[in-house]
Amino acid sequence: MALPLDGVRVLDFTRVLAGPFCTMLLADLGAEVIKIENPAGGDETRQWGPPWAGSGEQRHSAYYLAVNRNKRSLTLNLKTAAGRALARRLVPHSHVIIENFTPGHMAAFGLGYDEVQPLNPALVYCSLTGYGQTGPYSPRPGYDYVIQAMSGLMSITGATDGPPVKVGVAIADVICGLYAASGIQAALRHAEHTGQGQRLDIALLETQLAALVNVASNYLISGTDPARYGNQHPSIVPYQTFMAADGAFVLAVGNDGQFARLCALLERRDWLADARFATNPARVQHREALATHLAEIFATRPVADWVDALLAAGIPAGPIHTVAQALNDPHVLARGMVQTLPLTASDSFRMVASPLKLSATPPRADLPPPALGEHTAALLRDLCGVDAATLAQYRAEGVV
């Protein structure tokens, strides 16, 4: 079956998370992703364990496995002239280069956009950095944790009376990878129409700022710095966590109609005539009073009872799952969101599947994350015409 990005070849000079996550998305949609790695260890995340899958030389960290399926690994030592020359020989055969070195690093290798664009005028060249190619912060390294802090995300995350808190996953990296994948596909479309490539300058800080969406808009419209609301919503009430008799659950009343149904379910129709609670703006103003009433009621029954009753009344609600509960939820399993891939001839591992459900061209999931340099010989032979003797010389010299 042909996939949307069949025929697109990506030279992936990224490592860790944002770049590999982006290129995995492209690979899932059919792109041929060649993961360029340093022969001395490769992607750092290969060593970021435990936990591990496999054993011995076939041991892989769970972190590495999470974002590197459907790729092939080619080792090149870019600190050697021969390694840089081989990389340049790959450029005319490729459609996309993606890299996440600090600004100027690829140019120092002779592999910056200005250096390789003449080799392939239709090339899409995507650079992922912490702060972009220009501006006073551009030389700084980009780390998700720091970006969460500097973007304002941590300032709005955590309990109202507690310190700022980071999100439990490297969300700035993930969001940057999503934006990069979208931008690359747009640039490929442009190149198809015009024959002209372009450079994408995508920064972690900027994509995280964009992901603040309504929170950023609230500040830009009001001039007031957003507060930290913990598990509450700044603009919708009641939209928060409540304690039931046996644990916590989430209630998400998104409009006045849902609030009316909540009042009926709780046999508190008097709230609809109470000026403090009748409309969402009023409920926002009097959130503490309403939350106190709701907390007293919800404490009387178990989570499952409340969630079932709320959903039956058309009111959004759900239990607070652990990761294990979420990944073993029957709905999640029914939707095929946990997949098994081979790791070796005798071992397999489970990972989260692509969430994209395309009726005609569903994403592929057929290649496990590659071992370091697993495809070096085949790729150099097929794309660069490197014979076995030359390859052996390269290996002896530490080029691959």
Task: Write structural notes for this entry.
There is one protein chain. By secondary structure, this protein is α/β, with parallel strands linked by helices. The protein folds into two domains: 9-211 and 334-397, 3-Layer(aba) Sandwich (Rossmann fold); 239-320, formyl-coa transferase, domain 3 (2-Layer Sandwich). The protein is 37% helix and 15% strand. The protein is built from 17 helices and 13 strands. Helix 1 (18-28) crosses helix 7. 33% of the residues are buried.
Short note summarizing the structure:
This protein has 400 residues and is of the alpha/beta class. The protein is built from 17 helices and 13 strands.
Determine the CATH topology of the largest domain.
Rossmann fold
Q: State the CATH architecture of the largest domain.
A: 3-Layer(aba) Sandwich
- Molecular shape: elongated
Mean pLDDT metric: 95
Please describe the structure with a list of short key phrases separated by commas or semicolons:
formyl-coa transferase, domain 3; 6-stranded parallel β-sheet; alpha/beta; 2 domains; Rossmann fold; 400 residues
